[in-house]
Amino acid sequence: xxxxxxxxxxxxxxxxxxxxxxxxxxxxxxxxxxxxxxxxxxxxxxxxxxxxxxxxxxxxxxxxxxxxxxxxxxxxxxxxxxxxxxxxxxxxxxxxxxxxxxxxxxxxxxxxxxxxxxxxxxxxxxxxxxxxxxxxxxxxxxxxxxxxxxxxxxxxxxxxxxxxxxxxxxxxxxxxxxxxxxxxxxxxxxxxxxxxxxxxxxxxxxxxxxxxxxxxxxxxxxxxxxxxxxxxxxx
Length: 235
Known about the structure:
Distance between the termini: 13 Å
Helix content: 40-55%
Strand content: 5-15%
Number of helices: 10
Radius of gyration: 18 Å
Oligomer: single chain
């Protein structure tokens, strides 16, 4: 579990998802970095879907705004939402754009009135999963292979998919091709190592970057700021 004065999260009761909530304090915080995930969020009486990002996103919300969300494991949300991930790439859209308005109004009211909004969001995911069925298990194998640092070619062989099919399946499940997903997951590994106290050069070497300069370039491109500044920002 992660907690701070304005943010907390915990594992969800659904498919390796995470539920989280934040109250905007007005303090400058770090950007939301690409992670291959899709979130379903409650934001002051509205249900919103945050699609998979290809670059950092900095929310601009008034101080005091309350937000709660469920962050789905990569590849699991499209089955629940009924839309390919690439159609949501780099977007924040109201759930009414994806589901019938009457259904969304009923679910929104349920979360509005819930004493525990995180539990209410979990309940939505669990109910939808019971209707939609499980995601294709090959998607998790793709994520695990790329997260472990395997090349796209090695991932294709391990999952018994040819390059074209792997790319097409990745677009639908994750919002981008396997090369982009591998790049995003590699950055997340490097940042986790750096946050644990590993020197930047060692973090780069341990997670598959050519050197610290390579890591720094990736951070600037994907996060929009230098590595040191990014790590100095609040989560």
